[in-house]
Design a protein that fits this description.
Layout: H1 3-31, H2 36-48, H3 51-76, H4 84-101, H5 107-136, H6 140-163, H7 183-188, H8 197-214, H9 216-226, H10 228-233, H11 238-265, H12 277-287, H13 292-316, H14 321-335, H15 341-356
Helix pairs in contact: 1-14, 2-13, 3-8, 3-11, 3-12, 3-13, 4-5, 4-6, 4-11, 4-12, 5-6, 5-11, 8-9, 8-13, 9-11, 12-13, 13-14
Length: about 350
């Protein structure tokens, strides 16, 4: 298979998986006695039926882009980051601290510092995973899962100890100077919780692609991921590359946590369970083929499905859990790509036959 065919598969495999997932989801709805057309229309109406809903859909998409980029970046460098959830949480805590305590900064600088704090905290949490793998050979899946739970309990402890008003289950609010919200944009979308975080997420996707494919450092990370022994033979710092890759991956997830605190809630709750954005990021990265802009599109799909699920219940009386079945089916077809690769080969053969004729 040449490079052109590989690029075609990267585009068409997720697309075919999405179509098959939606189609099988429709069949399951029919078997359950529901109208799939009404369900999907209700889903789209919930996601795009008003400016408020449109803004909330974008709000839902934003952290998914960032956690998806976190997973995709690690995967591109030969690592599997299941710790985006923990990196998300420590990023939210760091941004909360800066947002509450650094009130001496002016508006733009305060927000920038709070986002940077979230990125650094996430990078540190990711670097711990990279260090354990590089220096001790501990698999990143094990350490990242363990650090997810440590992050959850650590963040809850810090919020309860330093930021929690008496009798409340959420922290004090961050200062308005650290908000990522833009007033006229908020008004345009009927007070939806839309923020500058969406632009930050898109810029992170641009950075992902540029750094990984246009810089020497990115080439080294990809080389380490492809064959660490060959990279070491070529004189590259393999252990340093592993730590750096996990740090950058964690920074994306940490920014996601910062965006949620500074642009959506403006406080941090005491959590009984993790919010789940880090785990959803795995699905987003898979749907996007672990490519930067593919991940953005994967987050758009996931955001529309998850936010629009409520519309299925109220608009078509369809259980919103069926959306999870659709998402699971899409991921299944992506994971079992051997099922749908013959379809792409058939399309390629048909095109070649037409060109030959």
């Amino acid at each position: 298979m040449n490079s052109k065919e590989r690029n075609t598969d990267v585009f068409f495999l997720p697309l075919i998986a999405i179509v098959l997932g939606l189609a099988l989801g429709a069949i399951i709805m029919l078997l359950g006695g529901y109208d799939p057309i009404a369900a999907y229309l209700a889903l789209l109406n919930k996601a795009f039926g008003s400016m408020y809903n449109f803004g909330e859909t974008i709000r839902q998409i934003t952290p998914l882009i960032l956690t998806g980029l976190a997973v995709a970046f690690a995967f591109r460098t030969g690592l599997f980051n299941i710790g985006a959830e923990g990196q998300f949480l420590v990023g939210s805590l760091a941004s909360l601290y800066v947002g509450v305590e650094w009130t001496f900064l002016p508006t733009v600088l305060h927000a920038a510092a709070a986002v940077a704090a979230g990125a650094l905290a996430g990078a540190f949490w990711g670097a711990l995973v990279g260090y354990a793998k590089a220096k001790r050979g501990v698999h990143e899946v094990i350490t990242s899962i363990m650090l997810n739970w440590i992050a959850l309990f650590f963040v809850n402890y810090m919020v309860k100890t330093f930021f929690l008003p008496a009798g409340q289950q959420r922290s004090v609010a961050v200062a308005e100077t650290s908000y990522l919200n833009i007033p006229f944009v908020t008004e345009l979308f009927s007070n939806a919780r839309l923020s500058f975080g969406f632009v930050i997420a898109l810029l992170c996707a641009v950075f992902f692609h540029y750094y990984l494919f246009r810089t020497k450092g990115g080439f080294e990370l990809r080389a380490v991921g492809f064959n660490r022994h060959a990279a070491q033979y070529a004189g590259m710092n393999v252990n340093g590359g592993i730590v750096r890759a996990m740090a950058i991956s964690g920074a994306f997830a940490g920014i996601a946590g910062a965006v949620e605190v500074l642009g959506v809630f403006h406080y941090q709750s005491v959590l009984t369970v993790s919010p789940g954005y880090g785990f959803q990021g795995i699905a987003v990265a898979m749907i996007g083929g672990t490519a930067a802009f593919g991940t953005v599109l994967g987050a758009v799909l996931m955001g529309i499905l998850t936010f629009g699920a409520a519309g299925m219940k109220f608009g078509a009386n369809v259980p919103p859990e069926l959306v999870n079945i659709v998402i699971a089916l899409i991921i299944f077809f992506l994971a079992a790509s051997g099922i749908i690769k013959p379809v792409t080969r058939w399309f390629r053969g048909r095109k070649q036959r037409k060109e030959a004729a």
